[in-house]
Amino acid sequence: MGKSDLLLELYSNLSTTGALAFSSKALVNKMLSFTDMEHAKLVVELGGGDGSITQGIIERLSPEGILLVFEINSSFCESMRKQFPQPNVRIICDSAENMDRYLAGKKADYIVSSLPFIILPKETTDEILSKSRDALSQKGKMVIMTYSFHLKRLFRRFFTHLEVKFTFRNLPPAFVMICH
């Protein structure tokens, strides 16, 4: 699937993608600057999309590190499976609400999310954030890309520590929230 097909899929499913464009390289670099991927054993990505963030994680992840990518759009999943055939990468075509089924009690060093929390139903959002918090290792972090500063209040309900950063170098400009 080419970039134009992915863009068509993105705009056809705005209610689940919640994005106007794919994440820029600058945004990916900003998000991942708050991680230490080369020492991570288990990383979870929520909302793989076109694989922009996935690619950035893989470039930094050691070959021993495992990456689980959750994506509900089957076209995106199919494209990412072709794009990322590495044995330590698993593309999971399922909702992030079900992450505990795939983690099987293991704890993640990092959870990286580009999910559109602002448009997801409250119950879905609460379930994903609760399971994310519970899935993190003791020193783990959840790094979230969002377009809304107001989601800070929501994330504070689930995480005791929260840092907010901003980048203009994305269309539209985005916030990066680091939760732990």
Automatic annotation (TrEMBL):
It holds the Pfam family MTS. InterPro entries: SAM-dependent_MTases_sf, Small_mtfrase_dom. Keywords: Methyltransferase, S-adenosyl-L-methionine, Transferase. Residues 23-164 form the Methyltransferase small domain. It comes from the Bacteria. Gene3D superfamilies: Vaccinia Virus protein VP39. This is Methyltransferase domain-containing protein. It comes from Algoriphagus aestuariicola.
